[in-house]
Design goal:
mainly alpha
């Protein structure tokens, strides 16, 4: 197999699948895929948590709390995620503490570029998730909440044990779309040198221009597979959680 791709690179210089026969370039691709998967999983989890908490805070009695949530939503929904990423890393990153190495010269920030990418992208997607869960909460009949309160449930218990499980089912289709968009948006992390798939692919075709077309195709195929797995899993989850009368 390796010999075939070597011969192909010699016969068709524009189709150099170098990561099929060069271990170093293959390692870059594999590490890039692994970083993309980890980055996507972390951002998905944190964005959902932000959405759930934010939707609950939108129903708070305090106008200040509701105002803070609304300001957060407007800020992150109305500015590009790329700008947010740069702002978090280059602006806020200057104010975060750093750890000085044993040599007295090396300085390591406590939040790495990967950490800032997770924070920025999670907050970006979380702003949309707040609105998605809010719509799901509003779809739950008031009589359901009243029944829970009549049984002595607190506001938090009503939300976590009654309203949220039902709202989650209603929100799954819209949540699916937003999470798919989030996975695709992780490519923008290359702007702060996060070694995800696109970043590693770019280093390969920068060193080997003949590998640009094959590597771009590889990136395209990998993201189709990643998004396909996410969509398949979300659809299976949606069908498993479906309750007649909710989310139909």
């Amino acid at each position: 197999m390796e010999d075939y791709f070597r011969e192909l690179a010699e016969q068709a210089p524009r189709w150099n699948f170098i990561w099929m026969y060069d271990e170093r370039q293959q390692g870059k691709i594999l590490s890039g895929i692994w970083m993309t998967i980890n980055l996507s999983i972390a951002c998905v989890i944190f964005s959902v948590i932000i959405g759930v908490v934010g939707a609950w805070m939108q129903g708070a009695k305090s106008a200040i709390v509701r105002g803070i949530v609304q300001a957060y939503i407007q800020f992150f929904r109305n500015t590009p995620p790329f700008v947010q990423l740069l702002f978090f890393y280059f602006a806020l990153g200057q104010f975060t503490p750093a750890v000085v190495g044993e040599d007295g010269w090396t300085v390591t920030p406590i939040i790495s570029n990967v950490g800032w990418a997770i924070i920025a992208l999670s907050f970006f997607a979380g702003a949309f998730n707040v609105e998605i869960f809010r719509a799901g909460i509003e779809a739950v009949p008031d009589s359901t909440r009243e029944a829970a309160e009549s049984l002595g449930f607190s506001r938090l218990q009503t939300y976590t044990e009654v309203v949220l499980p039902l709202a989650f089912r209603v929100s799954l289709p819209a949540l699916n779309n937003n999470l798919v968009n989030l996975v695709k948006t992780t490519t923008q992390a290359l702007a702060i040198a996060v070694p995800e798939l696109l970043y590693q692919a770019r280093t390969i075709w920068s060193d080997f221009p003949s590998a640009q077309y094959p590597t771009m195709i590889l990136v395209w195929v990998v993201y189709i597979l990643l998004v396909g797995v996410l969509v398949f899993g979300m659809h299976r989850w949606e069908r498993a959680m479906r309750i007649p009368g909710y989310g139909q």
